[in-house]
Amino acid sequence: MSELILGFESSCDETGVALVRAGGGAALPQLLAHALHSQIEMHQAYGGVVPELASRDHIRRVLPLTEAVLAQAGVALAEVDVVAYTRGPGLAGALLVGAGVACALAAALDRPVIGVHHLEGHLLSPFLSADPPEFPFVALLVSGGHTQLMRVDGVGRYELLGETIDDAAGEAFDKSAKLLGLGYPGGPALSRLAEQGEPAAFKLPRPLLHSGDLDFSFAGLKTAVLTQARKLGDDLPGRSADLAASTQAAIVDVLVRKTLAALAATGLTRVVVAGGVGANRRLRAQLDAACAERGVRVHYPELHLCTDNGAMIAMAAAMRLQAGLEQPRRDYAFDVKPRWPLEEVGAAGVTPGG
Ligand code: KG4
Ligand code: ZN
Fold first, then answer.
1. Are both 3-124+306-344 and 135-300 of the same fold?
2. Pairing of strands 30-38, 14-22
3. Which residue's C-alpha comes closest to atom 23 of ligand 1?
4. How far is the CA of 308 from the centre of ligand 1 (A)?
């Protein structure tokens, strides 16, 4: 079996398209080509993602990106065997663009479609790296909307161990960055500024660090950052790098320590980090150091596949197909799931409308 899978990602502010070849047997699917358009510049003027503008831009970008991917791979559209798209979670209007295009293409080609869970895409994206993980592992999913620790025993076998009870880690980065007058997206901007600052300069809270469970809470941190910024008053510009470094240190500290607690609770010796915050250099350095001490392997997606992209969606579809979790489906009525817990994906086939 060797199937070509075309995948679409349009859940937020990135339009991603990719082509993956699913091999036979246990061989991992291979990425043949992928293309991405980030809307960051467009949303920058508004300080955050404007959903309606996001949807309209996905419409503009998706077909030219698809043509680019097919050309790059030297594959004709008619050769595509399966079409995959992000079904959720995400912005409803943005998701509908990818779902609509994917289902229309699949209908025109008379090929099956697969609706993929965005977080499952992030979760499986390290399998596209040069050093892919093996099951089982603890997954730390850290994106703009989610912060979760999961036990992953295989494709479709996800057990939630803990999650944020309020803001996500990416949100904590983004909101703190906004308070410091940095642009959107705040994560990369804050971590760049933090490189010139002192992580121990300000004492910021590490919420739920000793809660005894694997949940997170980041809402209080942004209040603490705001209080500190107000206290500094006119001195803020001169100390903003220190405050950025201390904020990043607090977020990373909690993420690392809770991940270690998840390893201890499960007895597993492998970690996969996925989602946009997984690009954070301090998180990588601290987690690598803590895990090396404990003989634990840490796997990351390639840096350019940490944030949203089409490759992870095509990859997740390919791995679900290979695992026998998807029934080829040619019913092109579609829906999207703006809110969709990952545990619901499970081993049952994810079928649009189902
Ligand atoms: O996974 P992702 O691209 O989109 C969602 O599915 O949400 O994650 C985006 C999040 C944003 O909050 C962004 O600020 C954060 O990831 N992010 C970072 C870094 N790069 C992206 N946070 C900290 N450090 C980074 N280098
Ligand atoms: Zn994402």
1. yes
2. antiparallel
3. 187
4. 9
Predicted confidence band of residue 128 (pLDDT cuts 50, 70, 90):
very high
What is the predicted pLDDT for the residue at 321? Answer: 94
Fold topology of 3-124+306-344: Nucleotidyltransferase; domain 5 (3.30.420)
Decide which of 10 and 351 is more confident.
10
Q: Where are the beta strands (DSSP E) in the chain?
A: 3-9, 14-22, 30-38, 82-88, 113-117, 137-142, 147-154, 157-163, 270-274, 297-299
Residues 6+ apart with CB under 8 A from 111: 80, 81, 82, 83, 105, 330
pTM of the model: 0.94
Q: Which residues surround ligand 2, an ion (CB under 5 A)?
A: 143, 308
For the segment 178-201, the average pLDDT, to the nearest whole number, is 95
| Average of per-residue pLDDT across 159-181 | 96
Could you tell me what percent of the chain has a pLDDT over 90? 91
Torsion of CA 342, 53, 10, 95, to 10 degrees: 60
Find the residues whose C-beta lies inside 6 A of ligand 1: 12, 143-145, 170, 173-174, 185-188, 191, 275-277, 279-280, 307-308
Average pLDDT score over residue span 209-214: 94
Domain residue limits, the chain: 3-124+306-344, 135-300
Q: In a mutational test of the pocket of ligand 1, which residue from 36, 190, 277, 308 has the highest number of ligand atoms less than 8 Å from its CB?
A: 277
The CATH class, in words, for 135-300 is: alpha beta
**From ligand 1's centre to the CA of 257, what distance in Å?**
20
pLDDT range class, residue 347, cuts 50, 70, 90: low
